[in-house]
């Protein structure tokens, strides 16, 4: 047992962080003119797009821990590319369904981009024919949106209207249930076991993005507090500010520990244990993420309420992550239900 | 990253599991307060030690087993899951002896401490020196080959049952306050010591006032050099703040399973209301447990605990108080009628979690300044 990163995980983390930092926007205005295509190519060159695709299909054969390391690094830099949505989550879903080698190869090269369709509250995978909108989270540039169709097989529907909504670093889009698109063979029936595994992985990956966003938001606030002077001293010397920041670090450390464990458990443990870790991580990270990003705004004072200050960008990404695959209350209730079921 | 046991860890775990099944005392257990609780806890300490399950990460020559600190996490997991009494808080007072003591001192003090034969208490806090521990004024004057100690300690847990004391005292009042402190150890039945128990909010007395009137301590019972007291104190506190060192994780697991058992018996409506709160407490315990595992992994790699153990302590405080509040709520009517001493103790003791070992506010300041690197005021 050693729950810290091993050598190759540290290397992956450092590579991903360096790449993300080199591509990152340095101001809020930069998000509008960001060159997504160039960034996507850089992620392809680094081998991140097909990180989880088996090596036989041209992928990296990485673990969910590896994927979460990359997701966290990109979240930390607020990278405005749909990596989480159209590479990581879509990849997990396609692998879970047993999509064809050709589809997975095209995913790994970045040639095919698919988003994951969720119910309108963003909590679960969308099922074709059920009422309500299909919303894909972080689905910019997708060729299709994956939904569960007849016989619990994946189907791709056409992406609908795109929108930069709340989160200015990523796009969400509506799927059009009436128009399917042919993107190749998407695998067979999605079994209950495969679905559960998918959820465990998806939850841990979203939690990883939250951890990345949280750590950067806290760094930004702490740096601001060291420079801003009031009453003749840096505001970071005030105990009220220090304690607010310290509480956020405690939450961040708790969140990180749970997210890492969930990512590991998603590959390594029995389904129920993996789900228990995933619900726990997602619930905790969602609550901690929102609280931390709100505190970061507070530490910036009036500056934190301006569009040009990065603080709101962190908060908005954290809020949208918080909704993806269920909010805090939703995951807490799943956790309670699972614990209850397992005890009896 | 690997949360799975290696071969040795796995066989240790299964050995412990079957040992617990055979050796776990019959409930009910007295809560760890008051005389009866102390006798019970000591017996459990000796039993676990003789089974080979305590003092794991201590050197073999001093009665330990020379294993990685991660074994402490396994013990916490398994003891917690079995519902046995909590893991005794072994030897956080021994850590500074191991680090600063001479081989003779280690050989004399550590083995009986680990075995649970001799009980130790921590003489740090004073009436005038709580959070500002470095301002302590208990005075030790060198007189030939002995110190003469005068002064008072307070909140000294289990001093009335202890055989030995690890004391912080001022030997050099002429030096700046952090530099003039030294550490002495002595037997609690030495002449010149008066122990006065203080009744606590849950009714029994666990901590005490301790008075020293011309207590004589041989220089050979000083740990470290004269003036090493402050750095030595931080070694104690860093370990005291690591929840695995003081057995808290096993306690949390037991509290959690008790709450889940209460939950299962509630009528539908009430269960639906309470279940999310118990699940929330579960996440707080899980965050503490997983973070502690990370801290222990780092320690296993050879890094001594530093200011970041305050993060563990704060996660522990959150978990403790989240559970404590639920214990209160689920037994409120019994508490009103005075029918559930254990619940009373658990709730009120959770309120002390943000005070003992350095208050929550002090931990936050440590985290802000020494982990986040925020600037100190003028
Ligand atoms: C159950 C229990 C067992 C204990 N066992 C032992 C023991 O065995 N041995 C031992 O030596 N001690 C022991 N203690 C003492 C414990 O370490 C002290 O109570 C603690 O360090 C706080 O000191 P104090 O009680 O003097 O509070 P104070 O320091 O007076 O603090 C009072 C309040 O002021 C706040 N405060 C103080 N300074 C600051 C600051 N700089 N910034 C912000 N807020 C501040 C505190 O956070 C607290 O809320 C025990 C305490 C308890 C509750």
Describe this structure in words.
The complex is a heterodimer of chains A (344) and B (378). Chain A is of the alpha+beta class and 344 residues long. Chain A folds into two domains: 7-180, Acyl-CoA dehydrogenase/oxidase, N-terminal domain (Butyryl-Coa Dehydrogenase, subunit A, domain 1); 192-343, Up-down Bundle (Butyryl-CoA Dehydrogenase, subunit A, domain 3), CATH 1.20.140. Chain A is 55% helix and 10% strand. Chain A has helices at 7-23, 36-45, 64-76, 83-97, 101-109, 192-227, 239-268, 271-300, 311-323, 328-343; strands at residues 114-118, 134-136, 144-148, 154-163, 172-180, 229-230, 233-234. Chain B has 378 residues and is an alpha+beta fold. Chain B has helices at 7-23, 34-51, 70-82, 95-100, 103-115, 229-240, 248-265, 268-300, 309-330, 332-336, 341-352, 360-371; strands spanning 120-123, 139-143, 146-157, 164-170, 181-187, 193-199, 205-218, 222-223. A four-stranded mixed beta sheet of chain B has the order 1-4-5-8. In chain B, strands 2-3-7-6 form a four-stranded antiparallel beta sheet, with no helix packed on it. In chain B, α9 (309-330) runs antiparallel to α11 (341-352). The mean pLDDT of chain B is 94. The complex binds flavin-adenine dinucleotide. Residues 121-122, 124-125, 130-131, 155-157, 207, 352, 355-356, 358-359, 361-362, 365 of chain B line the site of flavin-adenine dinucleotide.
Average predicted confidence as pLDDT of chain A: 96
Number of domains of chain A: 2
Secondary-structure content class of chain B = alpha+beta
Second CATH tier, the architecture of the largest domain in chain B: Up-down Bundle
Shape of chain B: globular
Q: What's the number of domains of chain B?
A: 3
Task: Could you tell me the CATH topology label of the largest domain in chain A.
Answer: Butyryl-Coa Dehydrogenase, subunit A, domain 1
DSSP helix fraction of chain A: 40-55%
Main interface by residue count: A-B, 49 and 51 residues
Largest sheet, strands/sense/barrel of chain B: 4 strands, mixed
Task: Please indicate the percent range of residues of chain A in DSSP E strands (runs of 2 or more).
Answer: 5-15%
Q: Which series of helices and strands of chain A comes N to C? A: HHHHHEEEEEHEEHHHH
Outline type of chain A = globular
Strand order of the largest sheet of chain B: 1-4-5-8
Distance between the first and last residues' Cα of chain B: 42 Å
Provide the low-confidence segments of chain B as ranges.
Answer: none
Q: Would you state the CATH class of the largest domain in chain A? A: Mainly Alpha
Number-wise, the strands of chain B total 8
Q: Using the CA coordinates, give the radius of gyration of chain A.
A: 20 Å
CATH top level label of the largest domain in chain B: Mainly Alpha
């Amino acid at each position: 047992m050693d729950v810290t990163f091993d050598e190759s995980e540290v290397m992956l983390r450092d590579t991903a962080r360096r790449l993300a930092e080199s591509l990152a926007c340095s101001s809020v205005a930069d998000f509008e003119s960001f060159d997504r295509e160039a960034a996507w190519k850089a992620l392809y060159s680094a081998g991140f797009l097909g990180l989880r695709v088996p090596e036989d299909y041209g992928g990296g054969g990485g673990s969910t821990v590896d994927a979460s390391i990359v997701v966290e690094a990109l979240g930390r830099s607020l990278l405005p590319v749909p990596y989480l949505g159209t590479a990581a989550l879509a990849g997990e879903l396609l692998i879970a369904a047993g999509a064809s080698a050709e589809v997975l190869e095209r995913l790994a090269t970045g040639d095919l981009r698919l988003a994951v369709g969720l119910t309108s509250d963003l909590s679960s995978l969308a099922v074709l024919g059920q009422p309500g909108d299909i919303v894909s989270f972080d689905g910019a540039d997708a060729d299709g949106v994956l939904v569960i169709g007849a016989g619990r097989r994946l189907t791709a529907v056409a992406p609908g209207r795109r929108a930069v909504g709340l989160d200015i670093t990523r796009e969400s889009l509506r799927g059009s249930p009436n128009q399917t698109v042919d993107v190749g063979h998407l695998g067979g029936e999605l079994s209950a076991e495969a679905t559960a595994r998918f959820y465990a992985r998806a939850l841990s990956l979203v939690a990883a993005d939250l951890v990345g966003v949280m750590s950067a938001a806290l760094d930004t606030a702490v740096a601001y507090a060291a420079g801003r002077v009031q009453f003749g001293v840096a505001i970071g010397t005030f105990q009220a500010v220090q304690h607010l920041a310290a509480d956020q670090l405690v939450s961040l450390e708790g969140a990180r520990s749970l997210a890492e464990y969930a990512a590991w458990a998603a590959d390594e443990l029995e389904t129920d244990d993996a789900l228990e870790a995933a619900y726990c991580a997602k619930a905790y990270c969602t609550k901690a993420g929102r609280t931390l990003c709100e505190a970061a705004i507070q530490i910036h004072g009036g500056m934190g309420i301006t569009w040009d200050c990065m603080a709101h960008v962190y908060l908005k990404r954290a809020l949208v992550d918080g909704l993806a695959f269920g909010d805090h209350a939703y995951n807490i209730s799943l956790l309670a239900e699972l614990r209850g079921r397992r005890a009896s | 990253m690997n949360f799975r046991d290696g071969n040795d860890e796995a066989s240790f775990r299964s050995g412990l599991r079957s040992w617990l099944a055979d050796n776990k005392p019959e409930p009910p257990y007295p809560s760890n307060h008051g005389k009866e609780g102390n006798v019970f806890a000591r017996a459990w300490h000796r039993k676990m030690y003789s089974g080979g399950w305590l003092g794991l990460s201590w050197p073999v020559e001093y009665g330990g087993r020379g294993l990685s600190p991660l074994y402490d996490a396994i013990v916490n997991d398994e003891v917690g899951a079995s519902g046995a009494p909590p893991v005794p808080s072994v030897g956080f007072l021994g850590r500074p002896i191991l680090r600063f003591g001479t081989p003779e001192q280690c050989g004399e003090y550590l083995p009986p401490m680990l075995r649970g034969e001799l009980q130790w208490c921590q003489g740090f806090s004073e009436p005038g020196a709580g959070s500002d521990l470095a301002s302590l004024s208990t005075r030790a004057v060198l007189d030939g080959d002995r110190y003469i100690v005068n002064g008072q300690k307070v909140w000294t847990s289990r001093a009335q049952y202890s055989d030995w004391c690890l004391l912080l005292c001022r030997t050099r009042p002429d030096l700046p306050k952090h530099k003039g402190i030294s550490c002495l150890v002595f037997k609690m039945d030495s002449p010149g010591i008066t122990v006065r128990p203080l009744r606590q909010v849950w009714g029994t007395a666990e901590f005490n006032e301790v008075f020293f009137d011309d207590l004589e301590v041989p220089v050979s019972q000083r740990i470290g050099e004269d003036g090493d007291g402050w750095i030595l104190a931080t070694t104690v506190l860093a370990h005291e703040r690591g929840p695995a060192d003081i057995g808290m994780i096993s306690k949390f697991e037991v509290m959690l399973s008790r709450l889940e058992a209460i939950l299962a018996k509630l009528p539908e409506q009430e269960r639906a209301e309470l279940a999310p709160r118990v699940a929330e407490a579960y996440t707080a315990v899980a965050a503490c447990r997983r973070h502690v595992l990370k801290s222990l992994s780092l320690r296993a790699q050879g890094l001594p605990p530093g200011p970041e153990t305050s993060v563990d302590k704060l996660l522990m405080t959150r978990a403790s108080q989240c559970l404590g509040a639920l214990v209160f709520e689920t037994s409120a009517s019994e508490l009103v009628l005075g029918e559930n001493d254990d619940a009373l103790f658990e709730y009120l003791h959770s309120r002390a979690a943000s005070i003992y070992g350095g208050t929550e506010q002090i931990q936050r300041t440590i985290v802000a300044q020494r982990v986040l690197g925020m600037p100190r005021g003028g």
